[in-house]
Design brief:
- The protein is built from eleven helices and ten strands.
- The chain has 293 residues and is α/β, with parallel strands linked by helices.
- The strands form three sheets. Strands 3-2-1-4-8 form a five-stranded mixed sheet, sandwiched between helices. It has a three-stranded mixed sheet with strand order 6-9-7. Strands 5-10 form a two-stranded antiparallel ribbon.
- It is globular, with a radius of gyration of 18 Å.
């Protein structure tokens, strides 16, 4: 099983150094890592989203630490960045699985262990789409331990992974989404047009109003009859409060999931080798009306 890791950075240098260090320290030696750094200025409008010195500081850090990186000279936003990462991971590196981690995702030392177990599950399944190990950090350690063989739906795509065969299922749909948002900044994306497109991806009872890259990818997951799952133990928390790639309101709405009773799970997770038919049927039924944010 070949694993590639894409790490996304923009304008939060101090936060990026903290979270990227965890990835570098904890990643298995057989994984391949590449950093994707977005640009400071929107090409069409000339709007400046970050000081050039901040982007240059990030790039200098990547060079000094000898990290492989891609730098877009102009701002192309997270949707296009994800496509670049997918193309790198699945076409250039020929990975079986790709993990996508943003600069506000803080991982535990057991994150990659859990993700490898989830990766094997995804590679052996035709129903698992995006998967992650962020779980529910509001639970106590004992509750997480008791529930470590259980799974819930992902309300957001945090530090997630996808298998090659799933990406190929949704590739054309994702490219169609990018064509709709092309030429507009992500903050000013054409929501009515995106909503109209997502309505064509049935079933999507609970997703047409979500126009973000994550929401679109979840709609595509539903459309190909797959599920987006996370285990219960929490090996990732989202610590970002500010930034163009994160809404502060979402952070506060879900604070109980990030800074709960015990935070990150402090021990390895032992997951089952596969989801049972009963688990899959239950998750698919819940997915029909799941309250995504």
């Amino acid at each position: 099983m070949k694993i590639a890791i894409a790490f996304f950075s923009f304008n939060r240098t101090r936060l990026m150094k903290l979270t990227l260090k965890k990835v570098v320290d904890f990643m298995p030696k057989d994984c391949v890592l590449k950093v994707f750094q977005d640009g400071a200025t929107i090409q069409d409008s000339g709007e400046i989203l970050a000081p050039d010195r901040v982007i240059e500081r990030n790039i200098s850090f990547f060079r000094d630490t000898r990290l492989d990186y891609f730098h877009s000279p102009v701002n192309i936003c997270i949707g296009e960045m994800v496509l670049r990462a997918m193309q790198w991971g699945f076409e250039e590196v020929r990975a079986d699985v790709l993990y996508l981690i943003e600069d506000d995702h803080f991982i535990s030392r057991f994150y990659f262990r859990a993700m490898k177990q989830l990766s094997r599950m995804a590679l052996g399944s035709d129903v698992i789409g995006p998967f992650s190990a962020y779980g529910d950090s509001s639970l106590s350690v004992w509750q997480k331990f008791k529930k470590q063989r259980e799974f819930v739906l992902m309300h957001h795509l945090w530090a997630y992974g996808i298998a090659r065969h799933f990406w190929l299922k949704i590739l054309e749909k994702y490219q169609a989404y990018l064509k709709i948002i092309a030429g507009s900044h992500f903050r000013h994306r054409p929501n009515p047009a995106i909503t109209q497109y997502l309505k064509t991806l049935t079933p999507n009872r609970n997703l047409p109003g979500i126009t973000s890259q994550d929401g679109a990818l979840l709609a595509m997951t539903h459309n190909v009859d797959c599920i987006a799952v996370t285990c219960i133990p929490s090996h990732v928390i989202n610590i970002g409060k500010k930034g163009l790639h994160f809404r502060p309101s979402f952070y506060y709405q879900n604070l109980h999931l990030m800074n709960g009773a015990s935070g990150l799970f402090s021990m390895p997770t032992f997951l089952p080798k596969s989801l049972s038919k009963a688990q899959i049927d239950d998750l698919k039924e819940k997915q029909k009306f799941f309250p995504y944010n």
